[in-house]
Structure formats: structure tokens, C-alpha cells
Write a structure and sequence with these properties.
- The protein is α/β, with parallel strands linked by helices.
- The protein folds into 2 domains: 12-144 and 192-255, Rossmann fold; 148-190, no CATH class.
- It has helices at residues 14-17, 51-65, 88-99, 153-157, 214-223, 239-246, 258-268; strands at residues 6-11, 26-31, 66-76, 80-81, 84-85, 102-111, 127-134, 148-149, 169-170, 178-179, 189-190, 195-198, 229-232, 250-255, 274-279, 282-286.
- Strands 12-6-7-3-2-13-14-1-15-16 form a 10-stranded mixed sheet.
- α2 packs parallel to α3 (88-99).
- The chain is globular and about 60 Å long.
């Protein structure tokens, strides 16, 4: 018999609460921590010059709890300070590498519906970083789960193939990689790029920075299978763990603010699976047959 999906929501500071999670137990971490000087009215804001020092104790615990073949996805973005981009994200990447992380890949989230605006020396931001870190070079990755339709280009590009297209064509820049265009004849699906085109979340007006459900869903598909464990140490209103639950993955979310914890809790109470809430060291369990008065 298949075990029930577990969804755990914890109220508290990630730096402390992560210590209660077993080492090498998490398959995927997907999170978006407060950006430097952002969400000051809710999370207080972390100064750009202090950001790396603030984040490293948390990432040390993340490194401990992630499985050797697991993946860590960090959604983050630089901000402008005194007319130039601050380097705290770049400094954080270097510091994480020193901590033992491998910076394996960088995805870009293209926000298709970013708000228009006018600034004297720049244009509006319409993208954010999604940094991929791993503990080892061999990690679980289910690429077929995120394949996309080939697209209109295949009808023209594959119609008249040159002799070069029919053999493996070595990279012109000497990277050692190559391509064989003929491999894609008669295929309907292809592997995606590392640019994700997704609209920002507009349905949740009660949280200061919500990413769309499609974003964690994409990474959950790519890096986990059913019953794997997903962790979001900055859970906010619970987007990641709700998506994980819907996709039959076990999950843990940690949120420091009571307001957002309560929002996430209210949404999770409609789940038809096992849910565990931790509130000031008091545990409350809900099951579909018995809600224990929490509805």
C-alpha cells in the first residue's frame, strides 16, 4: 500500500528550525528568500552588504539536509544601490561555492507580465535568477518530464538538411560539445532551454512576493519523483508545499511570520492528505477523516 503524502508547515526561523530536519533527507530545495532591502515592512529587510553573512548559516543547514543526489534552486535578484547593481548575489554564489556547493546551472525566469515603468538610467526588470546548486556532480534529473513541443522551426529547419546536419557537428568554439540536427526528425517534443517564460503571480494579494505555482512545479518535475521530499525554508504563503502536495511529493515549509504561516495553513487545510503543523513547538495533525477542529 502506498504511504500517504506528508505536508509539514513549521512556524519559526529557518536557521533554527532546519536543525530538526534529518541530514541527507531532502531531494529538492526550492525557495525565494527575502531579497536584500526588500519586504522591509514584513521581513525587516537585510542590507545588501550583510546579505551573504546572513544567508550562509542557513545554507550550511541546507547543505546538511540535502541528499547527495539532491538539488537546491535559489530564486534571487540583485538590486540597484546608488545607481548601480549591487554585487551581493555574485558574492553569495562565490561564498556558497566556498561552503561546498557546486554551482551547476543558472536558469532565468522571464516574467512575461512585468509591470511597465520609467527610470532615468535603466529599463524595467523582467527576469530573475534561478540558481541551481548541488552537493555532487551526479544528481537526479528527470529531463523527459519537462519536454516541450518542437515548435514551428522544425518544419523549416528539418525540411532540407545539409550534409553537416546529418553527422555530429563539433562545436565551433572548441567546447567539445556538438549537435546532430537529423536526430530530431519526426520528433514532436524537445528538451527546453534554461529560460522559463512564466507570468508573475497575480491571484494572491495577501503576500508581498509570490511566485507562480508553475515555477516550483517545473523544478519539482525536473528533479523529483513521487514521494520524494521537497523543502522550502522561506515558505511564505505556502506555494511550493501546496504544489508539492498536489504532485504527490512529501514536503516541508518553514515560515517565520505568523501572518503568512496562517495564510499557508488555511490553504493547506483543504488538502486530502496527511498534514502536520508546528506552532510554537506544539504539533497539530489533520487527516481527511478527522480535522481536529482546525478548519
Amino acid at each position: 500500500m502506498t504511504s500517504p503524502v506528508e505536508t509539514k508547515l513549521i512556524l519559526g526561523d529557518s536557521k533554527d528550525k532546519l536543525k530538526s530536519i534529518e541530514s541527507n533527507s531532502i531531494d529538492l530545495i526550492v525557495t525565494s528568500p527575502p531579497y536584500a532591502d526588500s519586504r522591509s515592512s514584513t521581513y525587516g529587510g537585510v542590507k545588501p552588504d550583510e546579505y551573504v553573512e546572513w544567508f550562509l548559516p542557513i545554507s550550511c543547514e541546507l547543505l546538511r539536509v540535502l541528499k547527495p543526489d539532491g538539488t537546491f534552486i535559489l530564486n534571487i535578484k540583485e538590486k540597484v544601490v546608488n545607481g548601480e547593481r549591487h554585487t551581493y548575489v555574485l558574492e553569495l554564489i562565490l561564498a556558497l561555492r566556498q561552503q561546498g556547493w557546486l554551482w551547476t546551472e543558472e536558469f532565468m525566469w522571464h516574467k512575461r507580465n512585468s509591470y511597465p515603468g520609467k527610470w532615468p538610467n535603466r529599463f524595467r526588470d523582467s527576469w530573475e535568477r534561478l540558481l541551481q546548486f548541488n552537493k555532487s556532480r551526479r544528481f537526479n534529473m528527470y529531463q523527459d518530464a519537462v519536454m516541450v513541443p518542437m515548435g514551428d522551426w522544425a518544419r523549416t529547419r528539418l525540411k532540407n538538411l545539409s550534409d553537416t546536419d546529418k553527422v555530429r557537428d563539433p562545436s565551433k568554439v572548441g567546447s567539445g560539445f556538438g549537435k546532430r540536427i537529423a536526430n530530431w526528425i519526426d520528433r514532436d517534443m524537445a528538451y527546453p532551454t534554461n529560460v522559463l517564460h512564466m507570468a508573475t503571480e497575480t491571484g494572491n494579494k495577501n503576500h508581498s512576493a509570490v511566485f507562480p505555482e508553475s515555477l516550483p512545479e517545473w523544478f519539482i518535475k525536473l528533479f523529483t519523483k513521487e514521494r520524494d521530499w521537497v523543502l522550502d525554508p522561506f515558505a511564505g504563503s505556502g506555494t511550493t508545499i501546496r504544489v508539492a502536495r498536489r504532485m504527490a511529493r512529501n514536503s516541508i515549509g518553514i515560515e517565520v511570520l505568523q501572518e503568512y504561516y496562517d495564510q499557508a495553513k488555511a490553504k493547506l487545510l483543504d488538502a486530502q492528505q496527511y498534514i502536520l503543523f508546528e506552532h510554537k513547538e506544539t504539533y497539530e495533525a489533520t487527516r481527511p477523516q478527522r480535522r481536529n477542529g482546525l478548519r
